[in-house]
């Protein structure tokens, strides 16, 4: 049997196996929280922004090729100017209107998004950027001898990949508060990105960042992954897969996790 697991599924299982069971085995609907709707809108805005960067780069290359061929083309024609205002305009296109209980909350989210986009623009415009891909899906084939007769694919999505003088740099956008450097260095999601990049591009990333968009500013937590950490990630993934296949769904309640769990209303061991 072939099994496909997304990083979101693995992450849910690690958070609490029963939460995984409610969501992916029993398929109990959970709706979309305001925080999830806001985060999705930020990702969507930055995806469109990255696509505009890539479209501009393609036009620049076409224009320079045509100039080399001695055609009369004005360099820079059709190239869109990327400004803080155009980024905020993209945010307005993505900003959810029906995810909030009141008009007041919707207005507050819209203004918060505007402020985050202006902060992001400041970060983005501070350096030269060569974007290689945005919102690029990936499939990582994992052989798992622990689970006989079952093959595994881990799926996910890169938010943004940039080319730097040192190599490829993976950026993952977050609207949550930053974690510690130690946590980022051991983060399984980033190790999976490194694994996926190696399978897709034939090289490990030069660096990886969690880019936290917070009202206090943009916080970039940068880290690296070597072959040893990638191999350790594979071991973690195969162990999680084995436990899921063995239907180990024992709950692991805690205040921090249960408080954000969409199933706390139906779970008999919820810590809140
Ligand atoms: S309420 Fe807590 S223990 Fe229950 S499923 Fe959610 S996270 Fe797990």
Describe this protein's structure.
The protein has 272 residues and is α/β, with parallel strands linked by helices. It has helices at residues 7-15, 17-25, 34-68, 84-94, 103-124, 181-185, 188-201, 227-245, 255-259, and strands at residues 2-6, 130-142, 151-164, 167-174, 207-214, 217-223. It has one domain: Lambda Exonuclease, Chain A. The protein contains nine helices and six strands. Strands 1, 2, 3, 4, 5 and 6 form a six-stranded mixed sheet that branches. The longest helix has 35 residues, at 34-68. The two termini are 38 Å apart. It binds iron/sulfur cluster. Iron/sulfur cluster binds next to α2 and α9.
Derived from helix and strand composition plus strand pairing, the structural class reads: alpha/beta
List SSEs in N-to-C order: EHHHHHEEEHHEEHH
Number of helices: 9
CATH topology, which one?
Lambda Exonuclease, Chain A
Could you tell me the strand content as a percent range?
15-25%
The small-molecule ligands in this entry are: iron/sulfur cluster
Return the CATH architecture: Alpha-Beta Complex
Would you identify the regions where 5 or more consecutive residues have pLDDT less than 50? none
DSSP strand count? 6
Q: CA-to-CA gap between the ends? A: 38 Å
Main beta-sheet annotation: 6 strands, mixed
Number of domains: 1
Shape: globular
The residue-averaged pLDDT reads 91
What would the keywords be for this entry?
272 residues; alpha/beta; Lambda Exonuclease, Chain A; 6-stranded mixed sheet; 6 strands; 47% helix; 20% strand; globular; binds iron/sulfur cluster
